[in-house]
Design brief:
Blueprint: H1 10-22, E1 28-34, E2 44-47, E3 50-53, E4 71-73, E5 79-80, H2 82-87, E6 101-105, H3 115-126, H4 128-134
Parallel strand pairs: 1-6
Antiparallel strand pairs: 1-4, 1-5, 2-3
Helix pairs in contact: 3-4
Length: 135
Amino acid sequence: MLANAPIVKSKWIRDCIKILKKNKDITSVVPVQNINDHHPERAKQIKNNVLKSFINKKKISSNRQDLTKCFFLCHNFWVIRTKEILKNNGQLPWSFMGKRVRSYEIKSSIDIHSAMDVEIAKILIKNEKLNKKFF
């Protein structure tokens, strides 16, 4: 479990452990969420003070719903086989997760990186209806 992600459902952890136990070839199971707003095909970099695409493709839809689903790891908990952590030879940038990382899709996650994140997390934790709706 990571300390800056205050919302973790025990069901998520149980489900991920079950997946790992059932699938001996899986090195870890991690929660992910679909976030096409931050899709790599929409990402930019700055070169000489000018925005440039990260990905050189002839055609990229400006409509995020048209893009291939893009998933980002949630940083609230990860279920990892100990031997994979020791090997440390998996997918970058989290090589300790091993080479066969299985996803566990959740609706949402919140990481604490600012004072505003703390306040949002407090609201979500205190308000059970919001918590159930978003997580």
